[in-house]
Amino acid sequence: MRRTNLFTKTLKNAPADEVAKNAQLLIRAGFIHKEMAGVYAYEPLGLRVLENIKQIVREEMNAIGGNEAMMTTLQPREIFEKSDRWDDKKVDNWFKTKLVNGSELGMGLTHEEPIVDMLSSYINSYKDLPMNIYQIQNKFRNEKRAKSGLLRGREFVMKDMYTFARNQEEHDRLYEQIAVAYHRVYARLGIGDVTFRVKADGGIFTEKYSDEFQTISPIGEDTIYHVPDTERYFNQEVAPSKAPVHEQDIEQKPMEEKYTPGVVGVEQLAKELDVPVERTVKTMLYDVDGIVTAVAVRGDYSVNDIKLRMELSAKSARLIDESTIKQVTGAEVGYAGLINLPNDVQVVVDDTVESLVNFELGANKTDYHNVNVNWGRDLEKPERFYDIKEAKEGDQDPETGRTYEVVKAVEVGNIFPLETKYTDALDVFYTDENGAKQSIIMGCYGIGISRLVGMLAEHFADDKGLVWPMNIAPYKVYLVSIGEKGAAEADKLYDELIKEGIEVLYDDRDERPGAKFADAELLGIPLRVTVSDRGIEAGEFELTERAVGETIKLNREALIAKLLMLAANS
Length: 570
What we know:
Layout: H1 21-28, E1 32-36, E2 39-42, H2 44-63, E3 67-68, E4 74-76, H3 77-82, E5 96-98, E6 104-107, H4 112-119, E7 131-140, E8 155-165, H5 168-188, E9 195-201, E10 209-216, E11 222-226, E12 233-235, E13 256-259, H6 266-273, E14 281-288, E15 291-298, H7 305-311, E16 317-319, H8 322-329, E17 346-349, E18 359-362, E19 368-373, E20 405-419, H9 421-425, E21 430-431, E22 437-438, E23 441-448, H10 449-459, E24 461-462, E25 465-466, E26 477-482, H11 484-499, E27 504-507, H12 513-523, E28 527-532, H13 533-538, E29 541-545, E30 551-554, H14 556-568
Parallel strand pairs: 3-7, 15-17, 26-27, 26-28
Antiparallel strand pairs: 1-2, 4-6, 5-6, 7-8, 8-23, 9-10, 10-20, 11-12, 11-20, 13-19, 14-15, 14-16, 18-19, 20-23, 21-22, 24-25, 28-29, 29-30
Helix pairs in contact: 1-10, 2-5, 2-10
């Protein structure tokens, strides 16, 4: 491709409303165009990067027996009603539309239901399984806050794969096989050494844990807890945690009821009572599958709703409204505690509270708190304490006792065990060897293709611009001509490299050398070849590697051999 044939131009500045570094670089370099918040068009260079990532993913999915298909963007309401996912209260980021006849449709949020609906025509017997299907397609999600450039968009490109298995053992084998393939994908993209499999919440897809693939990065939205020298990685949302032990008196003091008018919140309370925050206990009231539940945690921690739900094997856990809190506790919000609760209230206490002596509790009485509360004397000790707190820096992994390493990361893929939720809901079963009807176990496996464009753009960049790895760069070589003789020789070299199958972006513009070099660095093409009048006279061509900035001089024969070798090894 000649730059004179390329309609895009580089920009000195990105749009003022674009704050994400990845989008700023990609817009300035002419890879993408911002249509609106969270929606980007891919210009020729950006499309080539996108397609290169797709191809790597496609090759690895095909290598494990994946069947590539292309599902529709428009999806009928009826199949999502069967799985109970049409209601906006269940899934709140739908884009929905209507046909002229009034029929409601969804727009490509996800494809579990449509895939199952399609396969209902093909799965009958145990002989039809296992099955592995994937697609690479645009998805649409009505994000409340589209941000971080390509990392969180409203329209994005995704690879989603679905497996169908006869039993749990077969599903587990497929699941692990795909996890290994994901590691190969990230290794080929150049981020294998900083991308890890992380335990996470299943979100809207499953009540079980899922596995995320997270790339360690300072730009990450997710907080990852890693047990040093192990493969144990957890998203903060599910990280098991043991709190550091704080020194405290072991002599029990008499419990007192303290008048604390208008004191709400543990920080203010600790100051008012002159006690460490670590000796306060906050009590929150939840609705857990319809059961009113008092949840207590040490004052310097927060309740983790996801861990609470999972610890109780519940389908939902949500905070109760203010009026219900008053009805249950008899007090204004901020004064809830564990003493004198109604008998029908379920009590769940975090393990941070177990060892406390002389701790503080809300008194279930407006403007009052209890101090010097102790287990066994003032309050019956629960048979079990739970880990339902939000992990924080300094916590330990309960299994190993090691203090977590806490890092930021970007989610670049995920895999979910779906069990039989969607196949059962859409009445798709198989008949086993004995003629009995059996449920089909599903798995779902996503890779954010367009998110990877943004992630890689930001990960492989410096103060001069993009620095693409060879195998995903839009072109392997950026050819620069300087001077009349240089231009004539560059024309010949361009044709020769094209014949050799080397992808070249030829800067044949009538521009100053400095402008061409600046563009070469901004665009991030891995190799720059400079053909100048001075070099022609010396019989030399300059070859510069973008990643390291080193330049060597070669004759024509050696240059072509070097380029062929570098391109072949990518």
